[in-house]
Design goal:
Layout: H1 5-12, H2 16-25, E1 31-32, E2 38-39, H3 42-56, H4 61-67, H5 72-105, H6 115-122
Antiparallel strand pairs: 1-2
Helix pairs in contact: 4-5
C-alpha cells in the first residue's frame, strides 16, 4: 500500500517537512508518481524508519546517509566512530556524576576546602 507524504509523516510521528529535508539531503530516496507526487511504499517507509532511528541514536544526517551507504565498510566506519563518540560521552557523563555525587556527600562546607573536589577540578 502506498501513502502520501502526509500519511507517511503521521505514521512515523514526524512532520512532512522532515521527510522532504531527508530526501533533499540524500538520506531518503522517494519515488514519484506520474503527477510528480511523492509515493511512500513499504520499502520507503522502512528506509524512513531507519533514518529516524539513526537520528534518534545521535547520528547527524550526513552520518545517516553514510551509514546507509550500499558499501558495508563505509557504513561500518561511520557507526564505529559514533560508538566511540558515545562511549567517550558515557565516560565523561560518569565522571560528572561521580564529581557531583561527591559534592553532595562532601563533608566540607566549601568545595574549595576539599582536597578531593580540588582533584576532580584538576582532571581534564
Amino acid at each position: 500500500m502506498v501513502k502520501t507524504i502526509g500519511e507517511a509523516a503521521v505514521e512515523l510521528g514526524i512532520e512532512a517537512h522532515v521527510l522532504r529535508h531527508w530526501e533533499q539531503v540524500g538520506a531518503l530516496t522517494v519515488r514519484r508518481d506520474g503527477n510528480g507526487y511523492r509515493v511512500y511504499d513499504d520499502t520507503t517507509l522502512e528506509q524512513a524508519r531507519t533514518v529516524l532511528k539513526l537520528r534518534r541514536v545521535g547520528l547527524s544526517l550526513p552520518e545517516v546517509t553514510a551509514a546507509m551507504a550500499p558499501k558495508k565498510s563505509t557504513a561500518q566506519a561511520v557507526v564505529r566512530r559514533k560508538i566511540a563518540a558515545l562511549e567517550s560521552e558515557v565516560v565523561h557523563r560518569q565522571q560528572a556524576i561521580t564529581f557531583l555525587q561527591h559534592t553532595v556527600d562532601c563533608r566540607h562546607r566549601y568545595l574549595d576546602d576539599c582536597p578531593d573536589c580540588a582533584h576532580f577540578v584538576r582532571e581534564a
